[in-house]
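Go through this chain.

——
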Amino acid sequence: MAVWPSIERTKRLRSYADFRGGLNTDAAPDHVADNELVIAENVDLLERGGITKRKGTVKLNQEPYGAPVEQLIEWPRDNGEEWLLAVIGNQLCRIREDQGYTAEPLATVARQKVGHFFLQDKLYFVDGQSYRVYDGSTVEEVQPVDEPDNDLTPIKRCRFIVRHPNSYRIFAAGDPENVSALYYSEPNEPDHFKAYSVLHPTTGDGPVTALYVFGDALLVFYEHSVWVWRGLDPESDVTWHKIPTGVGTVSPYSIALTPNSLTFLGRSGLYALSPAALGYDVTIQPGDGVVVNLAKNRVEKLIRGMADPTQASAVFDAHNQRYMLAYTDENGVRNNRILVFDWSVGGFTEYTGLACNDLLCRLNGDVLGAINQYIIKFGEGYRDFDDQPIRMVARTKQYNLDYPFHKKNLLNLYCSFRQPGIGTSEITLRLYVDDILRAEILESALYPNFVWGISKWGDIWGFRSTITTRTRIFGKGHRVQVEFRNEQLDDPTTIYGVGFEFRPARAKGRLL
């Protein structure tokens, strides 16, 4: 007769090598997926499942500007140049890249961020008090054309202004004296707004919170709705309708074009609007195919806890396929964290240690951040500006090792990570058993590890791009969790997976 081994005597090995689910702050511990993380600070997700420390940042201006950088603008000129502009303190400045990113003041502005558009190689902007134009040499007030019905007074009070390419009209909104109003100009005449050229798409949704051009449509955002203008002439073919989002945006600076969509921050989620939504004029619930809440069941708790979502600022990094949203956490200073959604794998992570008032993705692919007194560039090296270390922290879910109702006797911990190309890489592993810290293990990998010799061509024999370590561990419990930490300068840490060797103990209980 066959004798089955006792479950207490059988060693088991369970490995986890997929973290592409990214950050999850919403689910209960046992409902977090095996490929998700409960902490994911300063890491990026890899398409094949691993995680890696994010790259660093550098300062572009070596001398401080003397005031916070509030907004970044790139102005494509007709001669092929791209001028970098910034609002620094209360000054709109041209940033002289050929002179060490020094700031040349152009005009005093009344707000931290200005609404702007480009037309005929000129920059037009509003700041709530003035409507001005910059031709590359001087800044002047926009002078109204000599027409009796022309009135630029409400335009000067506006916060938002955009150019709609299809109708050739300029649209302005954010007038504190007429909060739901949308003003529009005559075609191709930024200096001609008739006094009666004003619309109120809705009167029950509060003030306009943003304007944005999406395809051939002008989107007018309110906090709880989005309205669409399509057509050329308001007296003949223009249509207005409310699209079925069920939500609007709380921050005009969170809106960014993303793959096959427009993404924006709402009061309780991060929403990706499909172009198909522009053709709908019925009210349905979000998530029914026209708008998707990317944060649903993953980071909605984080978004609801944002201290001042109206200040959040976002950009889409097309090169890395990442939507980056700078925001303020519950106890932090302004925009002290960056929520990152990786479009390639569909997961979230967070960047910390950077307080970005604004973000900009330039036409050449560079991602810039506006911080206190400096402009920084992302994706450089593996340390932050001022030689600060990047604090990488990633914590897995509480794994039950496929035995949810058994205690486990832990025997060995395995870790797979990339061997450094130079120097030493160190990873601190913290082992938690049933929420109690049981061990802290320092794993090190030196570049010359596994070197058996060097060939005449200079290649290293036996160099391994991946290292797997085994560490004896002790502990007994139902759930086990690992935290990865690295704060070394210039250490591009990459973790491919972990594994646990254990013996499950027979479940005990009362027989009925």
User: Anything to note?
Assistant: The chain is about 0% helix and 45% strand. Confidence is low (pLDDT under 50) at residues 448-463. The helical segments are 153-156, 300-304.
